[in-house]
């Protein structure tokens, strides 16, 4: 069963084509890697899948719903695209608690447990403005996974993490796959792709190609 189905997707901004027409599907319960140079179109592709951008042509289906038609945003999806944004004057827990209050799917204890799961202290009173880049990255992953979505879309999740942090988050992603989650990940770290991914696609000059052998 496919979690994501893209048909004839393209994206043009004014005169510039960022994504050439592409059709691809991503199978449920696997980790799918997207690689490519900066500016190759990875982030644009992720935003189109989520519903943050509308494609110039084509259709996007996520978890059985047509994004941009049946639903504005990809259903049951957790995302971390570009740099996570938080209220700098609040603690990590307060930030996630405020986000959780929007949909009211989870309570305070599940927020705390998710913070622990990414290697942070849920009782740390430190303001997010004082966080290191690695701590902010962990908090960004926490907000993506805390409501236990079936699909995760993570843009460079290892940014800012040290060697120990990278190992922890890799293990977390493998655990989430075991739980049946589908994960779409962009990473410039070759080892992330080799260790984590069941399939790999490369974007080059706006063209997406599935790499053989994956």
In short:
This protein has 214 residues and is α/β, with parallel strands linked by helices. It is 31% helix and 29% strand.
> How does the helix and strand content classify structurally?
alpha/beta
Termini separation:
18 Å
- Range of strand content: 25-35%
Integer-rounded radius of gyration: 17 Å
Binned, the helix content reads: 25-40%
Low-pLDDT runs of 5+ residues are none
Morphology: globular
Number of continuous helical runs: 6
Give a description of the structure.
This protein is an alpha/beta fold and 214 residues long. 31% of the residues lie in helices and 29% in strands. It is built from six helices and ten strands; from the N terminus they run βββαβββαααβαβαββ. It has helices at residues 42-50, 92-103, 108-117, 133-145, 163-178, 190-196, and strands spanning 2-13, 16-27, 31-35, 57-62, 65-66, 77-80, 151-155, 182-186, 199-204, 207-210. A six-stranded mixed sheet has the order 6-7-8-3-9-10, with helices on both faces. Strands 2-1-4-5 form a four-stranded antiparallel sheet, with helices on one face. A hairpin with a 2-residue loop joins strand 9 (199-204) and strand 10 (207-210). Helix 3 packs across helix 4. The protein is globular.
What secondary-structure arrangement, pairings included, does this model have?
Layout: E1 2-13, E2 16-27, E3 31-35, H1 42-50, E4 57-62, E5 65-66, E6 77-80, H2 92-103, H3 108-117, H4 133-145, E7 151-155, H5 163-178, E8 182-186, H6 190-196, E9 199-204, E10 207-210
Helix pairs in contact: 2-3, 3-4
